[in-house]
């Protein structure tokens, strides 16, 4: 139970900073809790709704959001989310998990070897 609380807490902090806290939660749920990949993704999305809402409110109050730039990203992000949902249903949990793991490895290697 303590590990679940810690994973949720760290995911919230990292997500609020815009650094992909969902990755932490997905890895914890799938690797350590044995939750199926697609279910872990659904839990992550539900987890993100309050974190994202609070973060947007705080950043908007601080006037750190450039709405004219954000709206196109948000619209295309919604389209991508719908396509991703149907694609994950088509591919299934096993392939979706492997694709996600592969992307994490590629992004991790990119961060390790990128020049400052």
Give structural notes.
The protein has 116 residues and is an all-alpha fold. The chain has one domain. Helix content is 84%, strand content 0%. It has helices spanning 2-16, 21-32, 37-61, 67-91, 93-113. The chain is globular and about 40 Å long. The N and C termini lie far apart (39 Å). The mean pLDDT is 85.
Give a nutshell description of this structure.
The protein has 116 residues and is an all-alpha fold.
Give the SSE map.
Elements: H1 2-16, H2 21-32, H3 37-61, H4 67-91, H5 93-113
Distance between the termini: 39 Å
- Provide the helix percentage: over 70%
Give the low-confidence spans.
none
Main sheet overview = none
Domains, number: 1
Give the rounded overall mean pLDDT: 85
Number of helices: 5
Briefly note the structural class of the backbone: mainly alpha
From the alpha-carbon coordinates, what is the Rg to the nearest angstrom? Answer: 16 Å
């Amino acid at each position: 139970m303590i590990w679940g609380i810690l994973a949720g807490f760290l995911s919230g902090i990292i997500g609020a900073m815009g650094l992909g806290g969902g990755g932490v939660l997905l890895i914890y749920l799938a690797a350590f809790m044995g939750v199926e990949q697609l279910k872990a993704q659904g839990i992550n999305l539900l987890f993100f709704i309050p974190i994202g809402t609070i973060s947007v409110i705080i950043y908007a109050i601080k006037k750190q959001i450039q709405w004219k730039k954000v709206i196109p990203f948000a619209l295309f992000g919604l389209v991508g989310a719908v396509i991703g949902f149907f694609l994950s249903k088509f591919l299934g949990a096993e392939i979706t998990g492997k694709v996600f793991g592969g992307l994490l490895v590629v992004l991790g290697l990119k961060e390790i070897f990128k020049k400052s």
